[in-house]
Specification:
The structure is a single chain. The chain is an alpha/beta fold. It has one domain: Homocysteine-binding-like domain (TIM Barrel, Alpha-Beta Barrel), CATH 3.20.20.330. 45% of the residues lie in helices and 12% in strands. It contains twelve helices and eight strands. It has an eight-stranded parallel β-sheet. α6 packs parallel to α7 and α11 packs across α12. The radius of gyration is 18 Å and the shape is globular.
Length: 315
Amino acid sequence: MDNLEKLMATPRPYLTDGGFETWMFFVEGFTAPEFAAIVLMDDEAAREKMRAYFERFLLMAEAAQTGYILDTNTWRGCTRWASKLGLSQTELLRLSKDAVTFAQDISASWNSRVSPVLVNGVVGPAGDGYTAEGSPSAAEAEQRHEPQMDVFLETGVDMVSAITMTNVPEAIGITRAAKKRNLPCVISFTVETDAQLPSGLSLAEAITQTDQMTGDAPLYYMINCAHTEHFQGVLDTDEPWVRRIGGIRANASRLSHEELDNAETLDDGNPQEFGDLHLALAERLPSLRVVGGCCGTDHRHIDFVSNHLHHKSTD
């Protein structure tokens, strides 16, 4: 059984990290345009902090005796972001390549202690991560994301994940680009406080339509960048689309996307409550394979989640 087969068959959810960008910017004090932590790959001090950040989560996975999904720092790596970041497209793709190499180095140093560690090439929206304004067609999205997908193919990531997807056409385009390259792909949608995507679709509609248009190509779906209370109610159903949800990376805060976008300080919520909420959430998701966090979450939040889903279940 290879590592992806282990992930898909696991009875114990793998861990991943928390709110990487909010940690680097609000806690560690680094700065970058457009919330684009990818530009920090050229900052040696930032790389040291990144390594320490990820290794704290890997220690949790080791203690929990479960696998780990190691994300690359490439969320703003689509070449359409290059001009806004003051870079050429070539320079931005080079940063994506560096981010993969960095993650692979961390993976190699931990694979004797955590098994498996999967290097996950992160794809972010070509546009804003909080709105669906100006959403591309599926064909446009596929074309826009192909250069970064080529980097992931060349560098040999284990899988790719499209994070904070606000609309279905972009999710379809990314999935098709990955499928053409035989790259296993995960799609993660974000929702507003009403459990609907910024585009107005429900999670059920988004997952069903993406599956229909791609031949069920995504490995599984995730939900990220929303508090669990924003979406947990719609999961109380036996409909097939719920079984396609394999990962949750929730926000620490109950604030809306608009409120978070305008916030000048970090809302880290209540880490212990965050863990408590995931115990109930896991009962709603029979196919849950990956747990982590998004904006405002850190090692404390994921530790409480792991304590509920891993340690208590083996006491």
